[in-house]
Amino acid sequence: MDTELISTARMDLVPLSVTHAEEMATVLSSPALHTFTGGAPLTPAALRTRYERLVAGSPDPAVSWLNWVLRLRTDDRLTGTVQATVTGSEAEIAWVVGAPWQGRGLASEAARGLVSWLTTRPAVRTVVAHIHPDHRASAAVATAAGLTPTDEWQDDEIRWQRATCP
Question: What CATH number does the domain containing 31 carry?
Answer without folding.
Answer: 3.40.630.30
